[in-house]
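Per-record layout

source: Solibacillus faecavium
name: EAL domain-containing protein
length: 580
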Amino acid sequence: MNESNKPNVQELFLSHFSKELIEKVFENIAEGIMITDKYKKILSINAAFEFVTGYKLEEVQGEKPSILQSGVHDRIFYIDMWNQLERDGIWQGEIWNRRKTGELYPEWLTIIEIKDKFGEVTNYCGIFTDLSERKIVEDELEKRALHDSLTEVCNRFAFIERMKVLLEMSAKKVQPIQHAVLFMDLDRFKQVNDTLGHAIGDQLLVEVSKRVNSLLKNKDILARFGGDEFVITLANIQHPREAAKFAEQVIRAFEIPIKIHDQDIYVSTSMGISIYPEDGETTEQLLNRADRAMSYSKENGRNCFSFYFEELQTDSNRLLLLDSELRKAIENREFTLAYQPKINTVTNDIVGIEALVRWNSEKLGFVSPAEFIEHAEESGLIIPLSEIIFDLACEGNQKLVAAGYPRIPIAINVSSIHFQQQSFLESVQTILERNNTSAQCFEIEVTERTVMNSAQETVSKLVKLKQLGFKLSIDDFGTGYSSLSYLVRFPLDVLKIDRSFIQHICSLDDKQAIVDAIIQMAHRLQMKVVAEGVETSQQVELLKSMGCDFIQGYYYSRPLPMEELIDFIHFWEVEHQGRI
Ligand code: C2E
Ligand code: CA
Ligand code: CA
């Protein structure tokens, strides 16, 4: 059969289907259809064409299809298209066109030449499907597979893929090549999430990834591994020093607070660094070691970075042990409290005592509360632990009353995680009832950071505690960036100036000026002031001269078991007031 004997599409259609049927299909088919004459001038379009392009028949009749041209493809593209059409009678492909609104969209287009029985072109027919929605879905799917949907940086999967390529290439290189893998974890992110809500937590993560991203170079990789964990690869570094410099930049970048809904949020981060190839030749090993170095940074005060070193292996074993031992200790109530007096500098009265938890673990020895409280906060163990501490403080109070000192309140440190619990007030009341004691015998210390979050709820909780009869202190003041005027809204009795200010008060003028200002302002707000961590008589004298009301610290007494504390009080009263 020669070319001209091939049945013509039109004829084929007309011979099989009625004109009405063809018209019905033409109008109702989901594909856009456009028919031109042999000069490529538009004769007819269907409803789907109108729908996709936005043009009505009157607007395009007599025009050339180039009315839809997007400008995306160059001249060569169209020349090739028409050449192929002339050669094969058909062209198919993806093409970008422009709607009447000006919007560009991709379509899958088939153009067919329609010839008469002499082989002469009479018409062209274009049939197309709008791909824009499919494209959006495809792009989205691709993005989701490789990107973290919240921050749009790489996800774990994409990170591992890119590392594979990077490490394979590096292994082939003759000259030695180094990369740094940084594991980064935000400090106290759980607290932000718990107190300010997940929506703000999410926004914070987006801002964090933007700040880190702005510090990166072309080949570097930033990925979010989920939660508040980020991983960064610094490719082709000359020296590990570069990684240290980068980590310092990250720390500095977070010194400026992140503003979300007019609220300044301070974040800091702890980082761990491993170096390829010294610390590992596989992604897994590098990640593992950077992660361990990160945990080490957390244990060493946060807001810092550490390089991996061999001894960390044993450290991570300790964390595991700490976790399991702490669980057992809570089960068996293996804790005690140590009590430290607070002294009125003018009258020499013992105005209160602070209860500090102590844990002497069979396997781990004495563990500092700073270490295990933090772990308890991160693992949720703080709630049962906090209840044990309250119970112990009630026992302590009974001993104090029995020894003849019913009016010395015991201050209990309350973790912000416990404080933020919906059931906090209830649980405290239950404990008081269970121990048959009253709130008047206690003081509650909440940190400045605790009250900085979700102010309204915090205010009403503090007011209720106050109504119950607790005295309220704000702990570690000066470390949380809140201004004193912010504190007016809280019903606080006492402000405790953080030890970090007291430490250098005799040698650093600026610390002295700050402490002086805090005392003046606190007095104006009708609050009493306690200086924490006072160790020397010079500090006592200076603080007295500034009008500081109460002093707590090793200078007077270390934290003591209740029995020893009672002896101390006894001795103190004899010494200072001649009372027995
Ligand atoms: P904090 O509430 O600021 O407690 C004061 C810390 O300073 C205590 O450390 C105390 O022993 C120590 N200290 C007191 N005077 C001096 C001094 O003159 N010099 C020095 N260098 N240190 C002094 P400790 O007992 O190790 O507690 C550390 C932190 O652990 C506490 O800081 C508090 O945040 C937390 N913590 C302790 N006990 C509890 C508790 O029962 N519940 C909760 N939620 N946290 C607790
Ligand atoms: Ca305290
Ligand atoms: Ca404190």
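summary: The two ends are 127 Å apart (CA to CA). The chain has three domains: 3-134, 146-309, 332-574.
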